[in-house]
């Protein structure tokens, strides 16, 4: 599944603002851990 760029940015923003781990933000926003890891490397 391809997520819109705005959603990807939101995930990364929430992670940074709330100081969450990758697993925590993935669970909260219902996305895969691997997806979040990939977005961190290439937003």
TrEMBL record:
Highest taxon listed in the record's lineage: Bacteria
InterPro entries, alphabetized: Homeodomain-like_sf
Name used for this protein in its record: Transposase
Lineage of source species: Bacteria, Pseudomonadati, Pseudomonadota, Betaproteobacteria, Nitrosomonadales
């Amino acid at each position: 599944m391809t997520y819109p760029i705005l959603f990807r940015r939101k995930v990364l923003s929430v992670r940074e603002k709330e100081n969450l781990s990758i697993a925590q933000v993935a669970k909260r926003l219902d996305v895969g851990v691997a997806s979040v890891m990939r977005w961190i490397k290439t937003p």
